[in-house]
Design a protein that fits this description.
Number of helices of chain A: 8
Structural class of chain A: mainly alpha
Number of domains of chain A: 2
Strand order of the largest sheet of chain A: 1-3-2
CATH architecture of the largest domain in chain A: Orthogonal Bundle
CATH superfamily of the largest domain in chain A: Winged helix-like DNA-binding domain superfamily/Winged helix DNA-binding domain
Radius of gyration of chain A: 20 Å
Largest interface: A-B, 59 and 60 residues
Oligomer: homodimer
Number of strands of chain A: 3
Strand content of chain A: 5-15%
CATH class of the largest domain in chain A: Mainly Alpha
Distance between the termini of chain A: 38 Å
Largest sheet of chain A: 3 strands, antiparallel
Amino acid sequence: METAEPDLSAELLALDNQLCFAVYSANHAITRMYKPLLDRLGVTYPQYLVLLVLWERDSVRVGEIGERLMLETNTLTPLLKRLETLGLVDRQRSPQDERRVIVSLTDKGRNLRGEAARLPERVFAASGCSVPEVQELRGALVALRDRLRARSGE
Amino acid sequence: METAEPDLSAELLALDNQLCFAVYSANHAITRMYKPLLDRLGVTYPQYLVLLVLWERDSVRVGEIGERLMLETNTLTPLLKRLETLGLVDRQRSPQDERRVIVSLTDKGRNLRGEAARLPERVFAASGCSVPEVQELRGALVALRDRLRARSGE
DNA sequence: ATGATATATATCGTGCACGATATAATCGTT
DNA sequence: AACGATTATATCGTGCACGATATATATCAT
């Protein structure tokens, strides 16, 4: 016999034992929960994330949005153009540094914040979690993410 | 004054306080960690998930793969065709019920399992988590996901 | 047997995500 | 001043994800 643990290998590869699939499927479930709520605002979930960044601090570079959301410009550029088409943001080159494109909220984009403010609460209610549970889960995920990111860069 | 808690609203919408973004960004980090490992097997992460299903039980309907991965056929059909083009699976109509398409592993697809068996361990090592931590995190995510799915259907 | 309904998969269009590459502006060194 | 390297954004091609719709088979009521 070459190997004495056929079960260990099967256990390791079982879908329901995989943390990665738990994260993957939870992400889809959350996105689907947000979908009908965001439809009413007329934006997609990644677009909503960009708005969260801008509602915190307006008029930032494309690259800075990318750093916060951990996305590349090849994702953000077309997304930001759609937000511009929707009339929610403006994009203009920085006069100081013509390489930079500054993204800023329009009045319409700023006003959307009021409607969006209700969303996290509604998703929280659907989650069935307590506040400490959510915080612990979030903390564990962020810690995991940051460790993986540190290892990926090596 | 209409509202006395401008800070509460800001807190709720802060990117770094959002569980949804923690899940979203952790998912990306995990996918990026898998990417170079899966490149060597010649498959993408969602394709790998399909293979996990088939390695557990071979020759299943498209719809059953969809149920396990929580994906629709509009995602799976083209993905399965790519796996077929890669020579990893076969797709054939069920003789009993001509509506069904049965997906089964080729020898090549079966053989890939040996190489894939090392992956979870390597990602686990990069996670920096202990086994109980991973299990708790996975359990919390699955519970959250299933509650959200139950609420979404309402 | 026949038509209505349900089931299983496929197709189409849009948007996200990313590797690879391109383009243009800036900076540093000489 | 000039040139190479770096920085910031954009473009292109591929694959995933999903809503809407289509198609074909199966089932059920009559």
